[in-house]
Input
Amino acid sequence: MHHARFITFEGGEGAGKTTQIRLLAERLRQMAPDARREVVVTREPGGTPLAEKLRAVILSGGARQLGPLGEALLFSAARIDHIDRIIGPALRRGAFVLCDRFADSTLAYQGAKGGVDAGLLKAMEKVALGALAPDLTFILDLPPEMGLERARRRRGADEADRFEGEDLSFHAQLRERFLAIAEAEPQRCRVIAAAMPPEKVAAQIWRAVDEKFLGRSAEARQWA
Ligand code: Z5A
Output
């Protein structure tokens, strides 16, 4: 029986989380058959039919009138369903679970710019997560202008969503908040320089996964 591994990806808009999760999932699925195991890729808000419905409401701006606390409660409700139906069962099966955003996004986004008090957000996190915590969290870090430009280019003529549409100072604060989370929890979090080309970002991520879960030192990897 393999140990399950819960890996989350966090960061601002356009940081490259989706791209990097895809690359890591491919690499894990290509591992030697004796080391290979199930890989589950999922995202927040979302991952279950109910959580995807909540995602559509929140990201369209349909819950904005509830204010940051109301939105934080909706993200937490979606997370409870996601943990119960997808993340928890996958971890019990021994899978690698790769999740695009998780509880750190609530701390960063719903706490930014005079949003919800950090103590209250932490208390809500405890209620939603219980004893669950990611084994490893990648914080993809890059200047917000660059991430927003990537997101804008990808979106084309479509309208910006609820959070992408916030001003630059909001996005600058997000970056600070994610870096503060990484500083407070260095055992769990790895800050990844995300302004580089995707292959270089993927190499940093693979090195951390290899070291933490596959138990290979830098020296062993060099000769593998
Ligand atoms: N939110 C919240 O407020 N509270 C919460 O608790 C949670 C979420 C869980 C989810 O939206 C929104 O919900 C999010 C926070 C909020 N805010 N917004 N908006 P989403 O899932 O739709 O969006 P996102 O999480 O911000 O992801 P994203 O904008 O889709 O970006 P990404 O996944 O980090 O990046 P990507 O899709 O991999 O790449 C974006 C583009 O850049 C794409 O065209 C790539 O080809 C390109 N790219 C990727 N990597 C590179 C590199 N290295 N170089 C150059 N170009 C690159």
Remarks:
- The domain at 5-223 is CATH 3.40.50.300 (Rossmann fold).
